[in-house]
Specification:
Elements: H1 2-10, H2 19-36, H3 40-54, E1 59-64, E2 72-78, E3 96-98, H4 100-108, E4 112-114, H5 126-129, E5 134-142, E6 145-154, H6 165-209, E7 220-227, E8 235-241, E9 247-254, H7 258-272, H8 282-296, E10 305-313, E11 318-324, E12 330-332, E13 339-341, E14 346-347, E15 361-364, E16 370-374, H9 376-379, H10 390-396, H11 405-420, E17 429-436
Parallel strand pairs: 11-14
Antiparallel strand pairs: 1-2, 1-6, 2-3, 4-5, 5-6, 7-17, 8-9, 9-10, 10-11, 11-15, 12-13, 12-16, 16-17
Helix pairs in contact: 2-3, 6-7, 7-8
């Protein structure tokens, strides 16, 4: 039946195209053209050109009373203009009139047909009506009120049939809604682009707070990966040079996502770098961060920060550490194959309780040991079935003991990408691997 219907649309019973088929062809072409438009000004121009073919007139004027009070209105378009004005971007160039016939029609809020048009010589819109003897007024409704109107004109009296008025009204209003939707879409895209530019700036600032390069630490091979789920995020890692060749290693994760988390991340970074003297021992560092956050920044919000801070001593191949609710870093011993965690000295996250005490724990390391610091965006990444990546898959990626830290991170990222099937991250992802040499 589909082939028969197509044939009927193409020809009449005599096998040739008739008037209605030609009209249909023009309408279909117009709808296709309208659907491709992205600029409302261009869409209106294209629609007007097509409508002049379908429904010829001798003149047209469009009116608007948006953000105006009776009897004021603006002329937004006119067939007399040689240069069309963009009514959405050049409002200050639109003629502002008051009263007269067009004002009466617009504020009348109803469709009208005038068969014998005789505008007064002093009518504010006399120049737009000059030489015309009939008109049809098509109100464009918004929230039930005719905020806009299209007035079509003809030089002969009784140039418009009242039979066509209903179709003219609904066609004009449907096109008006389509135009409004396109305007809103354009404004939304522009607003999105502006926000995206701002977030890009935030992202650049945030990344400038991370170490520009990884430090050279004796007996430790380092590699890091950092990915935000939005333009900016709340993950943070840092290194602090300490006396006697020791190094502080900090990884933190601010609750939430996006710009608010990025701001809190920047605050945490600033506090960490204002610690009086070398940031040691670890418990004192976390205690200082917690005091500053709770006293100044998190008291009136739900924000908090998980953090792990460890101090590595290259000469002894050991680490003393303290944890504020952060995921315990993993330790894989290449000598025994055993995998464990830095799971001692665990306390509340930063920014919750100003009186929280932070303890310390100590771990001796061996050459070949792999230390994996990470945020929960790694282990809680979801696959297509909703299952989390988890610790077991993270551990399974650390199988090759001969590999350096950079290769180990690549192995983790390959496993993660395969598990998530390349889906965008819904949380910030940070992983830092340190291999004891």
């Amino acid at each position: 039946m589909a082939w028969f219907d197509a044939e009927v649309l193409a020809t009449d019973k005599h096998g040739s195209a008739g008037p209605w088929q030609e009209r249909l062809r023009i309408i279909v072409e117009m709808m296709r053209e309208m659907s491709r438009q992205t600029d409302p000004q261009a869409m209106v121009a294209a629609y007007a050109e097509r409508m002049r073919t379908l429904m010829p007139t001798d003149g047209m004027v469009s009116l608007s009373r948006r953000q105006l009070s009776r009897p004021a209105y603006r002329i937004t378009r006119s067939s007399l203009w040689k240069e069309q004005i963009n009514p959405w971007r050049q409002v200050d160039r639109l003629p502002l009139l008051s009263g007269g016939l067009l004002g009466e029609l617009l504020y009348g809020d109803e469709p009208r047909v005038i068969d014998h048009l005789e505008p007064a010589p002093d009518d504010p819109a006399a120049e737009y009506l000059a030489g015309q003897r009939s008109l049809i007024a098509l109100p464009l409704y918004d929230q039930g009120v005719a905020l806009n109107m299209v007035v079509l004109l003809r030089r002969e009296p009784a140039g418009f049939s009242r039979e066509e008025l209903p179709d003219r009204v609904w066609m004009s209003n449907l096109f008006g809604r389509a135009t409004t939707t396109l305007v809103l879409k354009q404004e939304l895209q522009e607003a999105y682009d502006a926000v995206d530019r701002e977030l890009k700036s935030v992202e650049n600032i945030q990344r400038s707070l991370l170490p520009p390069e990884l430090p050279k630490i004796g007996n430790l091979d380092l590699a890091a990966y950092y990915q935000t789920s939005h333009r900016a995020g709340g993950d943070y890692y840092d290194f602090f040079p300490l006396p006697d060749g020791r190094w502080g290693i900090l990884i933190a994760d601010v609750s939430g996502h996006g710009t608010p988390a990025a701001v809190m991340m920047a605050i945490t970074h600033s506090i960490a770098h204002t610690y009086p003297g070398p940031p040691t021992p670890p418990a004192d560092m976390l205690r200082y961060l917690n005091h500053q956050l709770t006293a100044r920044y998190t008291g009136n919000s739900d924000a908090f920060v998980t953090a792990f801070y460890g101090i590595f001593d290259p000469s002894r191949r050991s680490m003393v550490y303290s944890s504020a609710g952060h995921n315990p870093p993993r330790i894989k011993s290449c000598a025994t194959g055993r995998i464990a965690s830095f799971d001692g000295a665990r306390s509340l996250p930063l920014g919750i309780d100003p009186d929280e005490e932070y303890e310390e724990a100590h771990s001796d390391l061996r050459p070949g040991d792999q230390l994996v610091f990470y945020t929960d965006g790694i282990t809680e990444a979801k696959g297509s079935g909703g299952e989390m990546f988890g610790l077991q898959r993270l551990d399974d990626a650390l199988t090759e003991c001969r590999e350096g830290a950079a290769a180990l991170i690549e192995a983790v990222l390959r496993a993660l990408s395969g598990f998530t099937a390349g889906q965008p991250a819904d949380d910030d992802r940070t992983i830092l691997i340190a291999k004891v040499s």
